[in-house]
Amino acid sequence: MTNQSPVAGKSGRVIMASTIRNKDPFDPEQFGKALKLTRERLGISCYLIDGETDIGRPYLSRIESGLKQPSRISVLKIGFSLFAHGLSLNQVDGLLQLAGFASIFTNDPHDPRVQV
């Protein structure tokens, strides 16, 4: 049995960020559960994320509870804070997509948005 992360994203090259939301509807409870599970698996506290970002612990708690919908910037800040503690960039991208935002990665080497 493989141990897969619930927020595994697509692999590929970095592209310019887009603020366009995915077509899939955003489920705040699913995103919150995945974020909390990911944070806990890394052994990261809400206090640490609060100290590394300008996202307060109470707001993060409401996101993880499914009570608040985070902005793209908030998801990226949280994701890169988790990246600094072991989360892969693909998993950061998975969080972004789970939050309903467009991917920051692409698998298409012919995509004109790919930055070299």
Question: Would you write up a description of this structure?
Answer:
With 116 residues, this protein is mainly α. It has a domain at 27-102: 434 Repressor (Amino-terminal Domain) (Orthogonal Bundle). The protein has five helices and two strands. The protein has helices spanning 28-41, 46-52, 57-64, 72-83, 89-98, and strands at 13-14, 105-106. The protein has a two-stranded antiparallel sheet with strand order 1-2. The protein is globular and about 40 Å long. Residues 1-22 have low confidence and may be disordered.
Summarize the structure.
The chain is mainly α. The protein is built from five helices and two strands, in the order E-H-H-H-H-H-E.
Q: Layout of SSEs?
A:
Layout: E1 13-14, H1 28-41, H2 46-52, H3 57-64, H4 72-83, H5 89-98, E2 105-106
Antiparallel strand pairs: 1-2
Please list the strands of the largest sheet in the order they lie side by side: 1-2
CATH class label of the domain at 27-102: Mainly Alpha
User: Averaging pLDDT over every residue, what do you get?
Assistant: 77
Series of secondary-structure elements, N-terminal to C-terminal: EHHHHHE
C-alpha Rg (nearest Å):
14 Å
Strand content: under 5%
Net shape: globular
Low-confidence stretches: 1-22
Cα distance spanning the termini: 37 Å
- As a percent range, the share of helical residues equals 40-55%
CATH superfamily of the domain at 27-102: lambda repressor-like DNA-binding domains
- How many helices? The count is 5
Structural class: mainly alpha
Largest sheet: 2 strands, antiparallel
**CATH fold topology of the domain at 27-102:** 434 Repressor (Amino-terminal Domain)
Task: Tell how many strands the DSSP assignment holds.
Answer: 2
CATH architecture of the domain at 27-102: Orthogonal Bundle
